[in-house]
Structures are given as C-alpha cells and as structure tokens.
Amino acid sequence: MAKKASNVIIKEEEVQTTVKEFHVGDLAVYPAHGVGRIESIESRTINGEKHDFYILKILENSMVIMIPTWNVNSVGLRNTIDSTQVPEIYDVLKTKKDDIFDNQTWNRRYKEYMDKLKTGSLFDVAEVFRDLFLLKLVKDLSFGERKLLDTAKGLLLRELCTAKNSDEETIWTEIESLFDQPVAEA
C-alpha cells in the first residue's frame, strides 16, 4: 500500500524504515513552533482510510498539532537536542558570519531567516538569532526583524532549557555572556 504526502507517493515499506517513532510523553520539536509533548497517539479515518496521528501539545502556548505518524520526517518533527549538543549551539552563537552586515535587502534576509526557522534545526535557529542579535547592535531593527529575533530567541531558549533541564533566566544569562566576549569570525 502507498501513502500520498505532498504530491509524493511513499511506499509503506519505506515509511516503516525511515520514520522516527515517538511515544506518549516524549518531548519533540515541531519546526517554527518549538518544543512540545506527545500527548497521545490517535487513529482517525480519513476518506475511508485509517491513519494514526501524534497529538503534540506545544509547551509554550498549549497549541495542539496533529501529525500523521508516517509523515513526521517530511514535516520536520524531531527529538529535542540533548545536553551534549548545547556546546555546539553555543559555538554557532559565538561565530559571526562574514557577510552579516552586507547590503542585502530586508526581504531577502527575511526569506532566508524564515527558511532557516522552518527547517526546525536548532543550529539554524541559533544562526538566525545570532545574526539578528548582532545586526541589532549596529542598527535599529525593523518591526519584522524584531519579531523574527523574538521568535528565534524563544525557540532557542525553550529548547536549550529542555536540553539542560534549566530555567529561561539561567539560559538567557549564558547566551548573553557569549555575546559579551568577542565574536569569532566564520
């Protein structure tokens, strides 16, 4: 049997071997929304076919998202990072991109930043945060840039808090201290 996802036919056998498996109570990250908890796994009948869904409740705002269990890879649902990856995230924050202050238009930067946030990768989120945080030091950010900075900051803080089993204030102090030191060139 084949399943259709985003105009792509996926064979059932492929889905079984490549899909990440989550259990009730697991923490997971949904791109651009952040850390959530798998509240349940429910079956629904759609167009006469039975499908299983992860019910993910986003921790920050209690938003509930239904994710087809066979489609977690394509939507980007992933495990949270663990504490061993935190230093790598901090390294991303400490490393400055060479062309951060180029004359790139706001629209192009905005699209690049949104694309990075949508990947769900905390490394990409850290890059967006770092770039906008550093840009804010040299110029006033537009409303859209400030909103993106706030979004990236929230996603970054919440996942780092989960990874380190710490509170936001402590993590924010650690992040700020990274920017008190000279930022390394990429």
Overview of the molecule:
The structure is a single chain. With 186 residues, the chain is of the alpha+beta class. The chain folds into 2 domains: 2-79, Thrombin, subunit H; 83-185, CarD-like, C-terminal domain (Methane Monooxygenase Hydroxylase, Chain G, domain 1). It has helices spanning 12-18, 72-75, 86-94, 106-119, 122-138, 143-164, 168-180; strands at residues 2-5, 8-11, 27-30, 34-46, 49-58, 64-68, 78-79, 95-96, 184-185. Strands 6-5-4-3-7 form a 5-stranded antiparallel β-sheet. A two-stranded antiparallel ribbon has the order 1-2. The longest helix is centred in the C-terminal third of the chain and has 22 residues, at 143-164. Mean pLDDT is 85; it is low at 1-18.
List its salient traits.
186 residues, alpha+beta, 2 domains, globular, 9 strands, two-stranded antiparallel ribbon, Thrombin, subunit H, Methane Monooxygenase Hydroxylase, Chain G, domain 1, 5-stranded antiparallel beta sheet
Main sheet: strand order? 6-5-4-3-7
How many structural domains in the coordinates? 2
Beta strand count: 9
According to CATH, the homologous superfamily of the largest domain is CarD-like, C-terminal domain
Helix percent band? 40-55%
- What is the chain-wise order of helices and strands? EEHEEEEHEHEHHHHE
Through-space gap between termini: 48 Å
CATH overall fold name of the largest domain: Methane Monooxygenase Hydroxylase, Chain G, domain 1
- The CATH architecture term of the largest domain is Up-down Bundle
Broad structural category: alpha+beta
Query: In CATH's first tier, which class of the largest domain applies?
Result: Mainly Alpha
- Largest beta-sheet details: 5 strands, antiparallel
How many separate helices?
7
Radius of gyration: 19 Å
Strand content: 15-25%
- Low-confidence parts: 1-18
User: What characteristic shape results from the CA principal axes?
Assistant: globular
